[in-house]
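As the next step, I wrote out a protein sequence along with its fold in token form, included below for the reader:
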Amino acid sequence: MYTQERTAMANLVVGGPVAVNSYDNAIVAALVENRPVMLVHAFNGGYLRPTELAASSHDKGVKLATALDPATKDAQGHLWHITPGGFFGQRPLYFIESAAGQVAPPPAGPADASSGRGDDGTPKPQRRRVTVHQDAPQSAADTLQVGLPAKVGDKWRGKNGAVEDTQLWIVTVTPWGGITFVPITHPDAILGFKDHTVAKDSEARLTYNWGGDFTGTVINTFYPRLPNEWDVPYHHVFT
């Protein structure tokens, strides 16, 4: 709705019912160009970051921070890649990968299918992904971890033989110009916060999607922001 009304040049549909166009540069950069972005929450302007920034951490979750400290910025803990990961019916699926702790790929060598290479044969960087607990959101356990597929706990691995099951998300563009995340393992849930509290250091986890569809509700909307747009309030960017 609003996205289409801002300009008639709606020429790209990503993930959901709302057309995305070149004006929404951060959404296009995140979903099409796979550029790292900040995920800024609609309610209080805080941003998602891994609880632990080190590459060696695979059993910690995600939290909402309201101040961008130098250590987080230097470690790229404020940046995320929304990486294509396949399809769920007609909907594209994505991984939410942290730029913090990214491991550079080894030098190119003989082709190896297990090494994970791009279309050009270049080894893909290893990034820790946001992973959902199998029993979420009913379980009282932590429902999110940030880690490599082989390093997260057993309950954060796919049930159906595919390690990636618990790491794939439906990313939907909302009518108000943000994006929302729905895990494919729990389509009745949405990325939210513990006890529905959106405050400093709130723990990110799955919550029931009371909105009832893939667009969720405004409280669970995130605005992708390119790093150079951090100081620009979203309501100035999107009006």
The chain has four helices and 14 strands.
